[in-house]
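Hey, quick one: can you model this chain's 3D structure?
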Amino acid sequence: MIYISRIFMIFACIAVVSPVLIFSGCVENNAESIKKVLTYDPSFQKLLDKKNDIQAKLSSSKADRNEKQRAIEGQIAVLKDKRSGVKADYLSSAVQLKKQIDPDRRNLYQQLLDAKNRLNDKNAELADAEKDMAEIDALVKKKDRLELTREEMQVWNKRITFLTRKKEVIVKEITDLKKDIDITKLKIKVLQIR
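Sure thing. Here's the predicted structure for all 194 residues.
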């Protein structure tokens, strides 16, 4: 246990003292170190030259990379401008193209509105016919009390027959109008351009 705590103390001291020594200037600068090494071993100059040559090549390569990177970044900026122009042209063209279908869609909306108005009219017409039929039916049921003649009954029966046929025609017209409305709505939906 004592042994482990001594090792820990040594590492702690090294961890604290090393940065202090490095930043306080206790470590000799590079030129002095090279001079000492070459004084002791002149043959080390070959390795030093090799290192300097590699360093020069790296610096040149880095400068070349920086120059190419600047050129590429310039091209990227130009391409971004072109892309913005292409996008603006597309959006402008798309708006103009989409406008070409607008008159047709407006025409369909008008047809839809007209059909809905006709449907409202036919529904009102049907309601009137059904009201008239109900009144005549009530009248016919009271024929004995009202003492209606045979001729009067024939008139009312003809009227009920006429209204029944009229109702059938109106119901068919309403069915057709509803179908037209549904189809016109589908046409409008199909003509949407995204």
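One thing worth noting: The chain has two domains: 29-100, 101-190.
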